[in-house]
């Protein structure tokens, strides 16, 4: 029997399909945690300020759209639009500075109804003949010192005199207006200082100096509230004064400092308003306290204290200035403007609350569905 040689080709092993590299469960969990953390931050208290500011920006866009619809002849001119933006910012500058101080007071659990009267008193005192003889530096120092001192008096009465902030600042409103009328003899005092008057007419790179002053005060307020111990203590005092006291915070002293800060902002605003009008009188800055409180509330500051943002308050001021400008270019009377403003304040707060509640519920359902 002869041997038979096997010449068949050996069978090749079957090739396995290509596989993806192994996935590290730890990396997957970390990625899910980061995504969940961002979602949790957005729908939690940390993202509430961002949601509120986004809503305020939406309101501004809606107001611009209304302006385009009602006055297309004006909004069709790009140069007029830019000029109008500067007018709105210039209109918001003085009230915006006052609102920064008011925001700190409200976050700290207080209220200041005397800010308009402090502006008037500081402006009148800075424009007396005796004060103007010291030049621009003397006028600025006088306005800041008057505002700071009146704010300190408010803080001492509230903290150590144990007066209710509403009553103490209401009494200061009447007293400061009366003192301003006495100093000016119920007359309008003209500012003869070219440097002070030039603050309102000076432009840097096409932008009014008043807008730069507002930006500087807002930036300083934002840093003070969000990046310093003073800001954290302000939130703590406004949220729970007793817990803040037990934590070692001198609540009374801090309250005095808050009202002093509000008075200082009023002193700055007094110089700005005096520069715009080139004069000062006891009736100036009328109802500024209501404008500042309304802007802070619209911006997300709680009247009960413990929460608020400087950026939100700034957006609130710009919204009201835009509304005033919108009414003016459409020829509405001041009385109609005030009535509509009151309605807008109430409607904005109600819509804001419903909007945030609905958004939080939607995000909560979306997260549950994803999980």
What sequence of helices (H) and strands (E) makes up the elements? HHHHHHHHEHEEHHHHEHHH
**What would you call the structural class?**
mainly alpha
Order of strands, widest sheet: 1-4
Describe the sheet with the most strands: 2 strands, antiparallel
CATH architecture: Orthogonal Bundle
What name is given to the CATH topology?
ABC transporter involved in vitamin B12 uptake, BtuC
Count of beta strands: 4
> What is the global morphology?
globular
Number of DSSP helical runs? 16
Unreliable runs: none
The amount of helix comes to over 70%
Word description of this protein:
Strands 1-4 form a two-stranded antiparallel sheet. The model has no long low-confidence stretch (mean pLDDT 84). The protein is mainly α. It has a single domain, classed as ABC transporter involved in vitamin B12 uptake, BtuC. It contains 16 helices and four strands. Strand 2 and strand 3 form a beta hairpin.
Topology, please?
Elements: H1 25-43, H2 48-70, H3 72-75, H4 78-107, H5 115-126, H6 129-132, H7 135-159, H8 165-184, E1 189-190, H9 194-201, E2 203-204, E3 207-208, H10 209-226, H11 229-239, H12 241-246, H13 251-277, E4 279-280, H14 288-298, H15 310-329, H16 334-370
Antiparallel strand pairs: 1-4, 2-3
Task: Give a short summary of the structure.
This protein has 371 residues and is an all-alpha fold.
List the main descriptive attributes of the protein structure presented here:
two-stranded antiparallel ribbon; 74% helix; 371 residues; ABC transporter involved in vitamin B12 uptake, BtuC; 2% strand
């Amino acid at each position: 029997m002869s041997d038979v040689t096997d010449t068949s080709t050996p069978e090749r092993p079957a090739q396995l399909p290509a596989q993806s590299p192994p996935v590290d469960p730890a990396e997957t969990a970390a990625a899910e945690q980061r995504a969940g953390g961002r979602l949790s931050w957005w729908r939690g208290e940390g993202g509430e300020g961002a949601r509120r500011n986004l809503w305020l920006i939406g309101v501004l866009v809606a107001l611009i759209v209304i302006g385009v619809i009602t006055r297309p002849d004006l909004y069709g001119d790009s140069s007029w639009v830019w000029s109008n933006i500067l007018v709105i910012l210039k209109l918001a500058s003085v009230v915006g500075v006052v609102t920064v101080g008011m925001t700190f007071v409200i976050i700290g659990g207080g209220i200041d109804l005397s800010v308009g009267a402090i502006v008037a008193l500081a402006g009148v005192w800075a424009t007396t003949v005796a004060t103007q003889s010291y030049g621009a530096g003397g006028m600025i120092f006088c306005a800041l010192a008057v505002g700071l001192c009146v704010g300190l008096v408010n803080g001492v009465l509230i903290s150590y005199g144990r007066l209710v902030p509403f009553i103490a600042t209401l009494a200061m409103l009447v007293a400061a207006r009366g003192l301003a009328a006495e100093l000016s003899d119920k007359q309008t005092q003209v500012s003869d200082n070219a440097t002070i008057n030039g603050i309102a007419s000076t432009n840097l790179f096409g932008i009014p100096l008043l807008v730069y002053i507002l930006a500087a005060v807002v930036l300083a307020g934002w840093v003070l509230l969000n990046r310093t111990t003073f800001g954290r203590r302000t939130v703590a005092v406004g949220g729970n004064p007793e817990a803040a006291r037990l934590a070692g915070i001198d609540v009374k002293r801090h309250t005095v400092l808050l009202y002093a800060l509000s008075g200082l902002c009023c002193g700055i605003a007094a110089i700005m308003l005096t520069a715009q009008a080139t004069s000062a009188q006891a009736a100036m800055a009328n109802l500024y306290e209501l404008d500042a409180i309304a802007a802070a509330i619209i911006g997300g500051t709680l009247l009960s204290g413990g929460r608020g943002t400087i950026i939100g308050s700034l957006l609130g001021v710009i919204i009201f200035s835009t509304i005033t400008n919108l009414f003016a270019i459409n020829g509405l009377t001041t009385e109609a403007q005030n009535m509509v403003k009151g309605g807008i304040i109430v409607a904005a707060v109600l819509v804001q609350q419903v909007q945030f509640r609905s958004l939080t519920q939607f995000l909560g359902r979306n997260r549950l569905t994803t999980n």
